[in-house]
Amino acid sequence: MWLWFSKLGSPRWFYELSGKWLPWLYAAMVVFMAVGLTWALLFVPADYQQGETIRIMYVHVPVASISLACFPLMAVAGTITLVWRMKLADMVAKCVAPIGAWFSGLALLSGAIWGEPIWGVWWTWDARLTSMLIQFFLFIGVIALRSAIESQDAAAKACAILAIVGAINVPIIKYSVEWWNTLHQPASRISMDPMAPNPPEIWVPLLIMIAGVYLFFIITLLLRTRNEILVRERRSKWVQDLVRKG
Amino acid sequence: MKAHRKKKLSIILFIAVGLSIAIGLSLFALSNNIDLFYTPTQVAAGEVTPGQRIRVGGMVKEGTVEHNQDELEVSFITTDYSHDVQVLYTGILPDLFREGQGIVAEGMLTSAGVFQASRVLAKHDENYMSAEVRSALESAGVDSDGMSSGAY
């Protein structure tokens, strides 16, 4: 297991392996996105309360849930950077921050677009919305911190600490709708019964969309990390061979 | 695992756990300020001073919505099923506003104990279903309250 761990830490090995994965991931993403989007936009029935507005959920829930996965991922990568000094972990941590910022921003934006017609306001300072906004700022903070410190090692350590501290916000976002009274609704309990609230005709396409957006996230992260590997290892022999090969 | 790595990892864990506890305690202490609105029970218990700008949240009580025929004035009772608050509002209501719906009203309590709202927001519950299923359920006589009470 330790051999596998140290092998995974080798940027070259990771570069070659992820290159083999990417075509499959692309294919799976296209399938899930095509099925999910078509289903969600054209075939999901209009909701009895909110009508066609329900379709916003098929974007909002996937981007929001992935944005919540980004901070723990960055914190785990940061811990590995601090304790084991694995080069690859810091590259992943660096590459996940802008993606997390984008997904948080999209969750806030799609939520506001939904909130205006349903709640009657674009924004309110309830616990869910505010904690999500804090997460968005934390991602921006991690990006700013990294670019503010010139030494790559010092930047890696500082960002790792901020990532670990900031990850405390994730359970706050998740449980905000249960701990406090908010305008945002709590998480739904899905039902197998087609005649009950939250039936399969509503959540099956949502699961497909979540899978599709997750694949998009993994692909984006792999592409960014591969790029970062090439930049940081540009003086190594294998990268120069790769460039010469064309 | 080597000794210095073990030490580093335990420092990180210690910081993370310590900070979580500190933040958890402060959030717990602040929970009244983090709540978006007061419930009718809190209003009845006198937690709200008249004239203070607050939000009150509850369900719109069945059969209490009265529209003024000439103006945009509306009066209704919001309830958490143990206490009621009378709300007065002049303005446009959100589309989702109806009897049995969760709402949040912004405004202030008058000394007469009536809540004068300057804005009314609709809450959406966590239940989604198609209009067809809903009307089928209604014609089958399923109690609609059992479903929507989860919203609050």
UniProtKB/TrEMBL annotation, chain A:
Biological process according to GO: cytochrome complex assembly
Topology in membrane: Multi-pass membrane protein
Keywords: Cell inner membrane, Cell membrane, Cytochrome c-type biogenesis, Membrane, Transmembrane, Transmembrane helix, Transport
Keyword Transmembrane carried by entry: yes
Entry GO terms, CC: plasma membrane
Subcellular location: Cell inner membrane; Membrane
GO molecular function: heme binding; heme transmembrane transporter activity
Domain called Cytochrome c assembly protein: residue spans: 26-184
KW Transmembrane helix (keyword) present: yes
Coiled-coil portions: none
Membrane-traversing stretches: 21-44, 56-84, 96-115, 127-145, 154-173, 202-223
Top-level division of the source organism's lineage: Bacteria
Family, as annotated: Belongs to the CcmC/CycZ/HelC family.
Functional summary from the UniProt entry: Required for the export of heme to the periplasm for the biogenesis of c-type cytochromes.
The protein's name: Heme exporter protein C
Gene: ccmC
UniProtKB/TrEMBL annotation, chain B:
GO biological process: cytochrome complex assembly; protein-heme linkage
Segments in the Extracellular topological domain: 30-152
Chain positions recorded as heme binding sites: 124, 128
Protein's membrane topology: Single-pass type II membrane protein
A cellular component term, taken from the record's GO annotations: plasma membrane
Sorted UniProt keywords: Cell inner membrane, Cell membrane, Cytochrome c-type biogenesis, Heme, Iron, Membrane, Metal-binding, Signal-anchor, Transmembrane, Transmembrane helix
Domain of life: Bacteria
GO terms, molecular function: heme binding; metal ion binding
Cytoplasmic membrane side: 1-8
Record field: transmembrane: 12-30
Chief site of localization: membrane
Compartmental location: Cell inner membrane; Cell membrane
UniProt-listed PANTHER family: CYTOCHROME C-TYPE BIOGENESIS PROTEIN CCME HOMOLOG, MITOCHONDRIAL
Function noted in UniProt: Heme chaperone required for the biogenesis of c-type cytochromes. Transiently binds heme delivered by CcmC and transfers the heme to apo-cytochromes in a process facilitated by CcmF and CcmH.
HAMAP family documented for this protein: CcmE
Family: Belongs to the CcmE/CycJ family.
The name this protein goes by in its record: Cytochrome c-type biogenesis protein CcmE
Species annotation: Pseudohongiella nitratireducens
This protein's encoding gene: ccmE
